[in-house]
Amino acid sequence: xxxxxxxxSREFGSGGRTIGRRVAEKLGIPCYDxxxxxxxxxxxxxxxxxxxxxxxxxxGGFLASALSHRASGPNNADYLWKIQYNIITELAEExxxxxxxxxxxxxxxxxxxxxxxxxxxxxAFRVERIVKEYGEREESPEQRLRDKxxxxxxxxxxxxxxxxxxxxxxxxxxxxGTLGIDKCVEIIEGLY
Amino acid sequence: xxxxxxxxSREFGSGGRTIGRRVAEKLGIPCYDxxxxxxxxxxxxxxxxxxxxxxxxxxGGFLASALSHRASGPNNADYLWKIQYNIITELAEExxxxxxxxxxxxxxxxxxxxxxxxxxxxxAFRVERIVKEYGEREESPEQRLRDKxxxxxxxxxxxxxxxxxxxxxxxxxxxxGTLGIDKCVEIIEGLY
Lengths: 192, 192
What we know:
Two copies of one chain form a homodimer.
Chain A: E1 5-10, H1 16-27, E2 31-32, H2 34-44, H3 48-54, H4 62-69, H5 76-94, E3 97-100, H6 104-107, E4 114-120, H7 123-134, H8 141-160, E5 172-175, H9 176-179, H10 181-191
Parallel strand pairs in A: 1-3, 1-4, 2-3, 4-5
């Protein structure tokens, strides 16, 4: 397999973004993560914060979308999805890169030279990481993790109809908690 | 992580058994697969074929078990499960080894020094492999694969209440179709 593009989906706090950056650095190729959000912001006219949030909520919530948005045609989230879709497709065509999150695994699903990775870890490992990385908040770290996971899974499901975290959707999935971040970087690098 | 035991769950035809054997060979440790079935047969008095089949059917089927077996206490499958549980626990205590299938991932879930692997591949890859390995049959290879997958998932679910093939249940999952059998062997060996 020629892996020109590596997509990394990840549970919040699992270190997926760190792993993506380190793999890209080692391979000397670009890593798109927040850069992607910036590009979507530029092309859409929305703020970066809005786009960041939109990437973690299934549009409108179930009731709202059943009752209004979907019936009245595409909404903001659909518009952003389209822009994101185009940007990711273009980036993948431009050259080798690592893309973190934003459903890139689905968007590039028919590209044979794409290595699809999912990173996860158990709650305890992620709790420790997010408190260290992002500091304390009012809600408990466990609650923050559960909320984030739920939103990401719902967003992914809404636009891709694929089960998030289901092994069959990926070339490999890694538990960063038991294997360690370094080992994950090494395995992905070795597959490129 | 000290990986004294490697458990390999796999989709039928994905090459999981071959991968397990080759990893064990490279590491110079035993691989239990059909040997396990033999041991269960010896301890239970049932035939090897009966045990092989029992490992792929959730006991009794839904209706049968709802109506009779479960209500009237443990059945043959539960009895076999108990024997299998004990054998796997003992093997894992004896020393380093690879164990293929038989819900070993679940049985050893609380052992910290156990590397839990899931191997899968897309239908086309597995169809080609099973026709080559096991020859043609009356049903189409696609049908055989779907049946086997369904049975293994149901059996696993029945005894473990875990979702089969869900990334979060494993340390790593590998797509043998896209990565290749050799690469899978190499990654697992490298983690030991």
